[in-house]
Write a structure and sequence with these properties.
Elements (H helix, E strand, L loop, with lengths): L50 E2 L11 E2 L1 E5 L5 E2 L5 E5 L8 H6 L1 E5 L4 E7 L3 E6 L8 E7 L10 E2 L2 E8 L3 E6 L4 E6 L2 E7 L12 E4 L2 E9 L16 E9 L6 E4 L18 E3 L1 H10 L5 E5 L19 H6 L6 E2 L1 E2 L1
Parallel strand pairs: 2-10, 4-11, 6-22, 12-20, 18-19
Antiparallel strand pairs: 1-11, 3-5, 5-8, 6-9, 7-8, 7-21, 9-11, 12-13, 13-14, 15-20, 16-17, 17-18
């Protein structure tokens, strides 16, 4: 299922909010199935950029370069698959990206190997080579005062976000097995019965870090181009509970009133989401947080593109480095 398109936040000097599309649509995606990485500059979920002005001095001529979002939120606790995601309001020229990356400093309490990767010309994400270690404290210093974007704009502020990597919670969903296994810090917690996408609207394969979650989401087939005809078998207009958001194009783990008893005994498929029973959906909602990895296997669909939400681990490390202007690095000591 899918709800209508959200409102995109506008960058301010001090803080911003960015809300992405949320949906369960089979064909509406942030990127084409054939791509491994995206050219979209957008991000999903809620984020803010906290400004720390530098002392006043003569600023280079030209309009300001501002940030639209920095994710995660300052002081957040997130999962082991969460990237640092920085979105600019205007395109960053290719020639300026290495210098931009130099001024985006990632520090951690546990030394961590990682790299930046550009998702088009407005969004750059930093992910570790492997998942973060639970308990790691992380800080991003975006020291962008007077830094050029290569297109005549210059940074006006520095921004700092600090966050913590929480418990290592993972969910592994088997489309063919109709199960989703949940673990916490390496120990099995529970195996849930699921239904995933139908043959016509298959679920994305691969690993998708949780973007956000909501207790209720209004989802319609018309808003995502599936059908606006109430007589069509694929038409829906529903408000559904316990929604864990996986992709910007609209993949959720949730309960659906059209599929109340998911599992191997049910032949009913979704429009791309992962369906749980009502009690299981409420339980799962209470277990996961932003950045926890949900991995789907067994679907006929490709892996979700890296920019479709926070699906960065769907790229190999060499593919990730191909999108970096400065290459592999180890975090500074926090």
């Amino acid at each position: 299922m899918r709800r209508g398109k959200g409102v995109i936040g506008i960058a301010l000097l001090v803080s911003v909010v960015l809300a992405g599309t949320s949906a369960c649509g089979g064909h509406g995606s942030a990127s084409a199935d054939s791509r491994n990485g995206g050219a979209k500059g957008g991000s999903s979920g809620r984020a803010s950029a906290s400004a720390h002005p530098s002392p006043s001095h003569t600023r280079p001529s030209g309009p300001p370069m501002l940030l639209e979002t920095i994710t995660p939120l300052d002081k957040a606790t997130v999962g082991v698959a969460m990237p640092v995601s920085v979105v600019f309001t205007n395109p960053v020229a290719t020639a300026a990206r290495a210098n931009i990356e130099k001024h985006l400093k990632v520090s951690a309490s546990v030394p961590t190997t990682g790299a930046w990767h550009w998702m088009g010309d407005k969004r750059v994400d930093w992910r570790p080579q492997n998942y973060w270690k639970s308990g790691t404290k992380v800080r991003i210093n975006a020291d962008l005062k007077d830094v050029p974007n290569g297109s005549g704009r210059y940074g006006t502020h520095g921004y700092t976000h600090s966050f913590t990597i929480g418990d290592d919670v993972r969910a592994d969903a088997s489309v063919t097995g109709h199960t989703m296994k949940v673990t916490r810090n390496g120990a099995p917690v529970r195996t849930l019965s699921i239904n995933a996408g139908s043959a016509e609207y298959p679920t994305w394969n691969g690993t998708m870090a949780v973007i956000d979650k909501q207790e209720k989401v209004h989802m319609t087939s018309c808003s995502v181009g599936i059908s606006c005809d109430k007589g069509n078998a694929n038409y829906y207009d529903l408000t559904l509970p316990w929604d864990v958001h996986l992709t910007q194009s609209g993949t959720y783990v949730h309960f659906s009133t059209g599929d109340t008893n998911p599992g191997s005994g049910s032949a009913r498929g979704s429009h791309g989401c992962v369906h749980l029973s009502l009690s299981d959906a409420k339980w799962f909602y209470g277990q996961v947080k932003q950045g926890d990895p949900v991995t789907v296997t067994g679907s006929p669909r490709a892996k979700a593109p890296a920019d479709n939400g926070y699906a960065s681990f769907n790229l190999s490390w060499s593919q990730w480095l191909d999108g970096s202007a400065s290459g592999e690095q180890t975090t500074a000591t926090l």
